[in-house]
């Protein structure tokens, strides 16, 4: 159940440019960002505070998976992550 909810959360988060891109006109607008977090929470049936904690956690996991692919003996070989959300391209690689 949680994986399904995280899938939905990721998909909806990707649509909220104001939460992801500093170049967005409203990125620094606290009210707009608060509204975007609240909309996400309603859409996935979670508390706003829970959504605001889950997304950074998923970003952190994504960053760890990226680092795993850049180290070790087979650096030139493509890294195949076992993390369910890695292949969904959760976040743009160049940003992290």
What does this structure look like?
- The chain is mostly helical.
- It has one domain.
- The chain is built from 4 helices and no strands.
- Helix 1 runs antiparallel to helix 3.
- This is MADF domain-containing protein.
- InterPro entries: MADF-dom (IPR006578).
- Pfam families: MADF_DNA_bdg (PF10545).
Please write out the topology.
Elements: H1 2-15, H2 17-20, H3 30-44, H4 48-69
Features:
mainly alpha, 96 residues
The assigned structural class equals mainly alpha
Taking Cα atoms only, what radius of gyration do you get, to the nearest Å? Answer: 15 Å
Q: Tell me the number of helical segments per DSSP (H or I, 4 or more residues long).
A: 4
Give the mean pLDDT: 80
Identify the overall geometry.
globular
pLDDT < 50 runs, ≥5 residues? none
Q: What is the string of helix and strand elements?
A: HHHH
Largest sheet at a glance?
Answer: none
Q: What is the number of domains?
A: 1
Termini, distance in Å?
Answer: 28 Å
Helical content, roughly? 55-70%
- The total count of strands amounts to 0
| Strand residues, percent | under 5%
Domain MADF: 8-96
InterPro entries: MADF-dom
Protein name: MADF domain-containing protein
Pfam families: MADF_DNA_bdg
In summary, what is this structure?
With 96 residues, this protein is mostly helical. It is 57% helix and 0% strand.
């Amino acid at each position: 159940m949680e994986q399904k909810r995280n899938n939905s959360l990721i998909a909806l988060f990707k649509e909220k440019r104001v939460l992801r891109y500093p170049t967005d006109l409203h990125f620094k607008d606290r009210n707009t960002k608060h509204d975007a977090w609240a909309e996400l929470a309603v859409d996935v049936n979670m508390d706003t505070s829970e959504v605001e904690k889950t997304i950074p956690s998923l970003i952190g996991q994504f960053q760890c998976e990226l680092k795993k692919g850049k180290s070790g003996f087979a650096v030139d070989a493509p890294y195949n992550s076992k993390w369910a959300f890695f292949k969904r391209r959760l976040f743009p690689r160049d940003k992290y």
